Amino acid sequence: MSYAIALNKAWEELLGLSSSKELSVKFLADEYTIDCENRRALSLSCNAPTKDFIAILLLHYLTKKVQGLPVLTEEWLGFKELSGIEGYKAAFKRRSLEPIIRKYGRNPQELLSVLDRLPGKRVDQADIGIVLEAFEGVPVMILMWRPDEEFGPEANILFDRSITGIFCTEDIVVLAGIVANQL
User: In sequence order, which ranges of the chain are alpha helices (DSSP H)?
Assistant: First the structure.
């Protein structure tokens, strides 16, 4: 799948707002250098160029950061509460929720081990809950419910309402998938 058009547009938007030759951004457990002159996003942990879909997400975030990030609302939204989700429900479930359930469904307590390697904290929600700092000012809450006699394990991902002022729905789906993959 080619991301060339979206990537070029993301670069143009950022370069139209920032005259910096190089920017830096933390995303989950990695730090990235954004080389504006050569239009390259480099993962410092891997010392390699990032995948295009991650670069697009980084550029969209930095564009909003340069403009000024919205204030956190501390009002959490589920994916179903976001606007424009109609075409993304299946992808969100398949890329985000199902991998979490597969990995932690039998032992939700193990989700807490993620906090040893990703920036975040435990929260008193569901049976097990954590909030990860995906980007500065972009918290993502992951909730797990243990299976019982009637229901299997469940997972959900919630976002601070302010995320709608940073990312479009497609970016939120990509972000959730990356977060789930990092768990």
Answer: 4-17, 52-67, 89-92, 98-104, 169-182
Give tens-digit pLDDT for 56-103: 999 999 999 999 999 999 999 999 998 888 888 999 999 999 999 999
Q: Which of 14, 45, 67 is the last residue of a domain?
A: 67
Same domain, 124 and 59: no
CA distance from start to end of the chain? 25
Q: Are residues 89 and 58 located together in one domain of the fold?
A: no
Residue 154's domain comprises 76-182
pLDDT score recorded for residue 87:
84
Q: How many domains does the chain have?
A: 2
165 shares its domain with 114: yes
Half-sphere exposure of 167 (CA within 13 A, CB side): 25
In terms of domains, do 157 and 120 share one? yes
pTM: 0.94
What is the spatial order of strands in the sheet that 154-160 belongs to? 76-78, 154-160, 138-145, 128-135, 120-123
- The predicted-structure confidence for 118-137, as pLDDT tens digits, reads as follows 999 999 999 999 999 999 99
Tokens of 66: 């340069």
